[in-house]
Design goal:
217 residues; alpha/beta; Rossmann fold; 13-stranded mixed β-sheet; ATP binding; kinase; kinase activity
């Protein structure tokens, strides 16, 4: 299984402890300022890309000196740096893509990262992608039946409808649903697992599932 971890340039306070994620077989991609953050935390990315507009000239030279391969893009472009990173990971044939540093800071960056997975070019890869920060785990799902496992220390689970969702059924959760329809976006938040697993299914649209814990817990 090929696993690629992508570090983007979000606030360091939102990034989890990476010790559990830094196995020797993992391929690391540093995106824009995420490349600098990895190097400062003793992780040398295999590849770095982005417009690097958040780095000083000296910081960019430091990245160039330590990272084997770098792709620099113009600041004015159609894709965000995170989208470029996701495209690169897909092109490498990744089976699992974990993205860190997508939350916190500017709200437009957060919204762009969340909406990214609704784009048609990423549709076939959405269930490979996990967005992870210190307090949240997020994953997009296409229609079907899905079983999810409760993550330790994550108390809450939420289901956010991205577009027109039909036939949403939730089983194994504190607040169940049966064949519900949501022709609009809605965050079904603050739900909880009854045990260690839950199941949800739906017939159309996309759902962003998140598991979360309160800050400081």
């Amino acid at each position: 299984m090929k696993v690629i971890h992508i570090m983007v340039g979000g606030p360091q306070r939102e990034i989890p402890d990476l010790e559990a994620y830094n196995q020797p077989t993992i391929i690391w991609l540093g995106v824009d300022g995420g490349a600098k953050w990895l190097l400062e935390n003793d992780i040398v990315p295999d590849h770095a890309l982005g417009d690097f507009d958040s780095l000083t000239a000296a910081e960019l030279e430091m990245v160039r000196a330590k990272v084997a391969t770098i792709e620099q893009f113009p600041a004015e472009k159609d894709q965000t740096d995170t989208e470029l990173g996701l495209t690169w990971a897909i092109d490498q044939g990744a089976d699992v893509i974990r993205i860190f540093g997508t939350s916190g800071g500017r709200i437009d960056h957060l919204l762009a990262n969340l909406m990214m997975l609704t784009k048609p070019q990423f549709r076939e890869a959405i269930e490979k992608v996990e967005l992870i920060d210190r307090y949240n785990f997020l994953k997009m799902y296409a229609p079907g039946t899905h079983t999810i496992t409760k993550i330790q220390d994550m108390q809450y689970v939420a289901f956010t409808t991205m577009g027109n969702v039909d036939g949403l059924t939730l089983k194994g959760f504190k607040y169940p649903l049966t064949d519900a329809a949501f022709p609009f976006g809605v965050a079904l938040s603050s739900n909880e697992f009854l045990g260690t697993e839950g199941e949800f299914s739906f017939q159309s649209g996309l759902i962003l599932m998140s598991q979360s814990r309160d800050e400081g817990v």
